[in-house]
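Quick note —
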Amino acid sequence: MPETVSKLYRALVLDGRVSLAVLDTTALVNEAIVRHALSPLAAAALGRTMTAAAYLAGWLKEEHSSLSISVDGGGAGGKLGVAADGALGIRGFIEHPDVMLPLRADGKLDVGACVGRSGTFTVIRDDGEGIPFVGTSPLVSGEIAEDLSAYFLTSEQRPTAVALGVRIGVAGSCLGAGGVFLQPLPGAGEEALDFAQERISAYAQISSVVEREGAQRVLSELAAQDIHERDIVFRCHCSRERAASAVLAMGRRDAYDLLAERGCISVHCHYCNTDYTFDENDLRMLFGESE
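Predicted structure written out below.
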């Protein structure tokens, strides 16, 4: 059964030569579905990307560290953006949350067409050291797992076997979502690489595994050792105070002109789909004006 709270499990396998991560992100994806009113196809595309971001965030050194993933493949769903912090707070959006396409010939959601294949997969990671790391690789399939694996190989020179999946029920909610990551450690040798590539194929349907038996099945099957467990949450860093700062940055004249034109000023956060609204009284307070 899937966890009621999303989880990241990190461990070692193959006598400590391969790093294993197993994620159950069902709750995370369901939160995104509610916040953004996602179609099943949009939920699958964004859910896979959020799962990838949660895995990457697990490597961040400090809780205040951050990373983002942007995927721009020219597909029907438009651009995807996901941000995360070192405390495994994840948030994300897809440009067209109501996207719908015909199913593939095998009856599965066409995530590749939703994301697109003519673009880039970009990761920006900031560990607070002053110079963020930026890595970009061309999209391979738009299915996210293959694209993340290609990113690891070309941008970070770390071969990584990746399986990602999101299963959406007939009512539109997520029944199971998660990922498996097998990454040979430096100096592990060809045997470790072969192990990762061979074993990852068993988890091509990881969403169904998570739905029926949970992440523990993967940990057991791979004889995981030194297991560490962490919670993953949907968390956005936007606030009314930050939105107010954006209004102040417009300047008094432009702010009042916009207020006169629209009747109010609305600041929208794409990551969590929240609107912060400011009326005339709010502007007076922001700009230090009396009645």
